[in-house]
Amino acid sequence: MKRIILFIILVAVLAGGWYAYNEYNRKNINLAQVQPTATLTAAQLAWAFEKDSASANKNYLGKIILVSGAVKNIENEGSIVVLRQDSSTTSIRCSMDSTYITKTNSLQKGQSINIIGACTGYNSDELGLGADVILNRCVVQQNK
Amino acid sequence: MKTSYKIILTALICFTAICLHAQNKFFTKSGKIEFLSNAPLKDITAVNKTTAAVLDSKEGTLQFVVLMKGFEFEKALMQEHFNANYVESDKYPKAEFKGTIINNSNINYSKEGTYTANIKGALTLHGVTKDVTTSATIKVAPAGLQSNAVFNILLSDYNIKIPSLAKNKISNNVKIMVDSRLDPLP
């Protein structure tokens, strides 16, 4: 009986250790494999932050979201994709995942795309540079 | 001179004046800020590649805005702890720096070269504002400016608490490295 209990404790400790080791070394998951928590157009996302940034932060800050919009600009050799708003002056700036940067070369200005990214927040026009909602670790959703 | 020529000439002068004035400001929306915590048991580093900044070469002012959730770590758990427990980015989503270049008159923004800028300003992090002084390198090139700066901060100055269990893994003294190209504001 004692041996069985000791064996169970040993397995539990090893399992716990294995879990802790994996959790400690866990890397940020590639967003191509993640289901976004919200889906909206670039215009809707911009409007949410322009209208009430505190409420938009609650809804989107730190969340994985899918944004659809037209490409306004591609910057920094493909590492930033800017989605255009016709209806507002706020852009959606998408900082591309390092595995994706080479693929942004095939994107065209004006092209409609879906981007999945982690929302890192909103810069209102405090520096006089125009307002932006910023997404990190972005991937372009592949057409199914 | 014909009236139409006068109008065109005036418009041209105004347009040029506006253009020249615009050349006073340089900006970025993809500035890089990295920090390094060097502790006995480990080094922790993270990078933010979406920093926004404006440098006004006429006024000698410099402003940076950084979204805290934009810092990327190699390990997801560190990134989550950084945001939830240390900088509390849900409560304080941004860090900002507003400063002046004390020796701005020594920097010739229209002549190529590398200049040392002495910068003094206020850094707001985790809801606390503290004075910071540092020197930066500004390299003037035809396309724009390249700015680099390194300075240290104490996390405790900004009410960022390190639990005693983590003291050997997270240093209170953190090195911040700024590396940013600044383009002329159109």
Structural account:
The complex is a heterodimer of chains A (144) and B (186). Chain A is of the alpha/beta class and 144 residues long. Chain A has a five-stranded mixed beta barrel with strand order 2-3-4-6-5. Chain A starts with a helix and ends with a strand. In chain B, strand 7 and strand 8 form a beta hairpin. Chain B is elongated and about 80 Å long. The two termini of chain B are 32 Å apart. The mean pLDDT of chain B is 90. Classes of the chains: A alpha/beta (144), B alpha+beta (186). Chains A and B meet through helix 1, strand 5 and strand 6 of A and strand 1, strand 2, strand 3, strand 4 and helix 2 of B.
Average pLDDT of chain B: 90
Main sheet of chain A: which strands, in order across? Answer: 2-3-4-6-5
Q: Cα distance, first to last residue of chain A?
A: 56 Å
Low-confidence stretches of chain A: none
Order of helices and strands of chain B: HEEEEHEEEEE
Q: How is this fold's topology laid out?
A:
The complex is a heterodimer of chains A (144) and B (186).
Chain A: H1 2-25, E1 38-41, H2 42-51, H3 53-60, E2 64-75, E3 80-84, E4 91-96, E5 112-123, E6 132-140
Chain B: H1 3-22, E1 25-38, E2 43-56, E3 61-67, E4 72-73, H2 76-86, E5 94-101, E6 113-125, E7 128-141, E8 144-154, E9 173-184
Antiparallel strand pairs in B: 1-2, 1-9, 2-3, 2-4, 3-5, 5-6, 6-7, 7-8, 8-9
